[in-house]
Amino acid sequence: MFQGLAAQRLLALFFAGALLLNFPLLALWDRDATVLGLPLFPLALFVVWAVLIGLTAWIVERGEDVE
Amino acid sequence: MNTLAGPLVIAAAFAYLLLLAGIATLADRRAAQGRSVIGNAWVYTLSLGVYCTAWTYFGSAGRAATSGVWFLPIYLGPTLAMVLAWVVVRKMIRISKTYRITSIADFIASRYGKSPSLAALVTLITVVGIVPYIALQLKALAGGYALLTTPVGAAALPAAHWWHDSTLYVALALAGFTIVFGARRLDSAERHEGMVAAIAFESVVKLLAFLVVGAYVAYGLFDGLADLAARVRAAPALAPLLRLEQGGRFAYEQWFALIGLSMLSTIFLPRQFQMMVVENVDERHVKRAAWAFPLYLLLINLFVLPIAFGGLLIFGAGRMDPDGFVLSLPLAHGQPVLALVAYIGGMSAATGMVIVETIAVSTMVCNDLLMPWLLRTRRFGALAAGDLTHTLLAIRRGAIVGVMLLGYLYFRLAGEAYALVSIGLISFAAVAQFAPAMLGGIYWKGGTKLGAQVGLVAGFALWIYTLLLPSFVKSGWLAASLLSEGPWGVDLLKPERLFGMGGLDSLTHSLFWSLLANAGGYVVASLVRRPSGQEASQALLFVDIFERSVVRRPVFWRGRARVPDLLKLAGRFLGAARAQQLIDEHPQSGAEPGVADARLVQLVETQLAGAIGSASARVMVAAVVEEEPLALDDVMRMLEESSQLRALDRLKDDFMASMSHELRTPLTAIRAVTELMRDDAQMPAAQRAAFLDIVVTETERLGRLVNQVLDMAKIESGHGEWHTDDVDLRELLAHAGQTTAAMFKERGATLQLRLPDALPTLRTDRDRLLQVLLNLLSNATKFVPREGGRVELRLRADNAGVTVEVQDNGPGVPADQQALIFEKFHQGGDAANRPQGTGLGLPISRRIVEHFGGRLWLRSEPGQGACFAFFLPWAGAAEASSRHTRHEGAAA
After folding, report:
1. For B80, which of A14, A32, A41 is closest by C-beta distance?
2. N or C: at which end does chain B have fewer Cβ atoms within 10 angstroms?
3. What is the pLDDT of residue B432?
């Protein structure tokens, strides 16, 4: 079902994403702080989200045969 | 506050719709010319942007204004879902393309044995769950219009009569657009290039419009994001909105539920399935969409918080509806053009959703609800014995108008009611009910029709009871006591605290119970009884979709069908020309003319499925052919046959590969020396003669190779010719010795025969056996030492049969080579001093001996030489001939 390196990477990334975007890991960012004037929590959400997207792109666009 | 003139907004809206129509027309024209604009991963990705409706465009800021980041899980879920898209969605695409599946209802019905009742059930759930969602989009269009054209504070004037309501005309215009680009002609694959191009364009428009408004708020009205953030943090009422917990406990189960729910919606919302699976033109586009679609969602959400906070800071809480901030912020600051742009963006979001959702739902209503019912009524069947393509098209168009008007009706009836405002998530929860049957269906062969039915009914019923019913109560349409005291005062049956389960918000509560009952019912009911043949065959075809090539896919059908019947049937739904083309292009393998083979029947059924749904196609095909019902055992047997065929195919591939290698070697040699001779006219005669010898030798080798390959093929396929006779082995061995005498002399070796004095005759094929002996003897000459080579040919007999041994005094065969030398094209010796042979001698010899019930083996120890031996039983020939007859009997 999930044969091939890319498919397994995607599966691993899926679980990593599911953990990062949920309680309790998500709550670690929930502090009254700012980074460059931006509130930490919303910023962290968007950054985690963007990293997830970037990693997905890296896995699927490498041109390897993703079977 | 400024307003815009009503006619201006309406004119802009209709101009925008015209522009869309222009784009769709252009795309359709390009497609007809074979220069498709949607054969592009970026267009595919943008078309998935239909996920973002007016609910996103207006509602996200609204949600953010009341609960901060809680608008986000709805977009984080799709990101996670898309991570797995290459694995899961690609499988759905492959299945849908292969079996011409055009909707979720068709997918589920087809998977569980092409069941019309399942198709109808899924369609029903979709209509109930999705029509209000369409109504919500119409409401957004109307609300945005009212906001743009009425002064702030004044109540928007409701249209005095329904025919004054511009929303009705927008709905009708949308229905017209949808018909033109969704049902202008009959496409047997339900693909709509023009529509996809228009939707992709709309995705660009709404993204740009939202980004422009967001940038205006953040950088025009405030001094950038940091400034905005600082002001929010300074406002005690707003600061908690930046945090997860917002003062109270973080409702992580709701967060989790929202992410999970939106994950499922990414695939199972009818519009998403339509765009992602049905309209997909190339599986590889999924790779791009896997990250670019989440990126689109990230971008469109980038300015949600700034717009929400900007609105709250500027207008103050409670004065303006936060859902309208996207429009009211530019409007209040004297930017009517920007407000109009924002409205067009919102319109893009709403119309895109309405168009695609209507096409998807109307396809279901037509193919999975109306057609099966119509085709069953006798009057309709008699009425429309001829060409049905026009009827089909009319039904499809009627369904589009019907779905659209139903949405409008609900919008008029529900108005501001809670049931409409909150429908987004309620719809999501409805389509989430498809997940167990869909995902189970493509990964678990054990799921049955009964399981899918029980799961869907249970899930849908609980969805109605725990989510839809409470929304009616909150709209004031049902008595509030239903929620507070439970039906008939039964506390345990309270819809939002079923069986006393507290501590969950109503959405999470409903999702938990409905999906638990759904998945549980699906699994348990699937395990109640063995699947029928039809269910098992469809399960195999779906779950193992990647494991079979098109050619070797098993055909689960048995019966008799006539080509003219199939042609007539296909013509009724696909048009006569298309039907004729279909039949003509099919390589007919049937022995009798006019009789259709199973593959043709399957082809016609698949094509029909694209036009009228798989369940109806099954019924129609079954009506014109005589077929035998399939039992589970039949399915398993057909599968077995198909995998044997595949194994045979693989063998042939291996054989062809080594075969071509063997042919190339002598050919290369011949070509090399002939080219040398051609290019060098002054070549000495001796050299030329030597080269010509090479050509002759290599040609002989080629000829031998071809003969042996043919021989091998004949024996293997059971078509070899055998002439059984009473053979005197003593005489045969002596003959073999004489034949090879010259060869031995040339190698300076001696051959010794050790034969018993007398021996009964053996029934076998004299020529074939001689072939074996000559092969073994000539092999032996190749490996004996140059000087003093000795070969012994021995014959022994006992009660069981005779044994012949060929013993040489060569180097012997290394242990690791002993099994390999019986493989085709494997030659003994190392590559450097390999003797000239074909590599087929030993395999053929072994087959011949085995044909007569004997065996051929090698005994060799280093330094002791090699001894090839074979044993033939006395009764071997009799067995061989009777086995041969039996085999022929089975084949007939």
Report:
1. A14
2. C
3. 93
